[in-house]
Amino acid sequence: MAEKRYLLTPGPTPVPPEVLAVLAEPMIHHRARDFKGIYERSLARLREVYRTANDVLLFTASGTGAFEAAVANLTSPGDRVLVVSAGNFGERWAALTRAYGADVVHVRLEWGETPDPEDLRSALAEAGDVRVVYLVHSETSTGVVADVQALAAVAKDAGALVVVDAVSSLGAVPLETDAWGIDVVVSGSQKALMCPPGLAFDSVSDAALEQAARATSPRYVFDWERTRKAQAKLDAPFTPAVSLVKALDVALGLLLEEGLEAAFDRHARLGRACREGVKAMGLQLFSPDEDRSAVVTAIRAPDGVDSGDVVSSLRDRLGITIAGGQGDLKGKIFRIGHIGWFDVFDITTALAGVELVLADAGADIERGVAVTRALEAYESHATV
Ligand code: PLP
Question: d(Cα 321, Cα 335) in Å, to the nearest integer?
Answer without folding.
Answer: 10
